[in-house]
Design a protein that fits this description.
Elements (H helix, E strand, L loop, with lengths): L1 H17 L10 E7 L5 E6 L18 E6 L2 E6 L3 E7 L5 E6 L12 E7 L3 E9 L6 E9 L2 E5 L4 H7 L3 H9 L3 H19 L1
Antiparallel strand pairs: 1-2, 1-5, 3-4, 5-6, 6-7, 7-8, 8-9, 9-10
Length: 198
C-alpha cells in the first residue's frame, strides 16, 4: 500500500509542477498584413524565428522576408512589399509594424518598424536589427512629431527644446525610468500642444 501511495504521489507531484504557467501560442503565429500594391488585409500565419527561447520571436521574423504558412503552403513575402504588418506574439500580444518607407527622413530604406506608441501627432517606433550571427539583436528608437524627428535613441536635444516650454513636463522627462512613463508624458505633451492651439 505504501508503494502505491508513493508512486501516486510522485506522479501527482510530477503532473502538478510540470505544467507551464502560461500557455503560449504555437509557432507559426497568427498575423495579418497589407501590401503596398493593395488595400486588402491578408490573414495568415507567420513563422516566428527564435534564437534562445521558443516563446520569444526575434527580428529575423520580419527583417528581410516574412515567412507565411497557410494550409501547409509556405511563402516568403519580401518586407519591401509590405505596408503594414500585425503579429500576435506567443503571449497573445498584438505587435504592429509599419514600413519605414513612410518616413523617408529617417533614411532607413525599406524595413519594418514596430509601433510602440501612437498618439494623435506623436509616434514612437523601434527598428530592430541583428547584431551578430548568434541571434543577438539591437534596436534604435525613434520619436516623431508628425514628420519631425524629436528623439533618436539617446539623442533627445529637439525633444528637450520642445519640453522647455512646459517646465513640469521637462522635469518629469528627466526622471523617467520606464517606457510607460515616457508614453504617458508624450500623451500629456500632446494635450498641452492641443490646448495651446485653441
Amino acid at each position: 500500500m505504501k508503494k502505491i501511495l508513493t508512486v501516486l504521489s510522485i506522479l501527482g507531484f510530477t503532473f502538478l509542477f510540470s505544467q507551464e504557467e502560461t500557455e503560449y501560442i504555437n509557432n507559426p503565429l497568427p498575423a495579418k498584413y497589407v501590401l503596398k500594391t493593395s488595400k486588402d488585409t491578408i490573414n495568415t500565419y507567420v513563422v516566428g524565428s527564435y534564437a534562445f527561447k521558443k516563446n520569444h520571436f526575434t527580428a529575423d521574423t520580419f527583417l528581410k522576408n516574412i515567412k507565411t504558412e497557410n494550409n501547409e503552403v509556405k511563402t516568403k513575402v519580401p518586407v519591401e512589399t509590405i505596408r503594414y504588418l500585425e503579429i500576435t506574439d506567443f503571449d497573445r500580444k498584438i505587435r504592429k509594424f509599419i514600413n519605414s518607407d513612410r518616413f523617408p527622413e529617417l533614411k532607413l530604406g525599406s524595413r519594418m518598424l514596430e509601433v510602440l506608441f501612437q498618439g494623435k501627432r506623436i509616434l514612437v517606433l523601434r527598428e530592430e536589427y541583428n547584431v551578430n550571427i548568434y541571434g543577438n539583436t539591437g534596436a534604435t528608437y525613434y520619436t516623431l512629431d508628425k514628420r519631425e524627428l524629436l528623439k533618436k535613441s539617446g539623442r533627445d536635444k529637439v525633444l528637450k527644446e520642445r519640453l522647455e516650454k512646459y517646465p513640469d513636463l521637462l522635469e518629469r522627462y528627466k526622471r523617467i525610468k520606464k517606457d510607460a512613463e515616457y508614453y504617458e508624458l508624450l500623451t500629456d505633451y500632446e494635450k498641452k500642444i492641443e490646448d495651446s492651439l485653441d
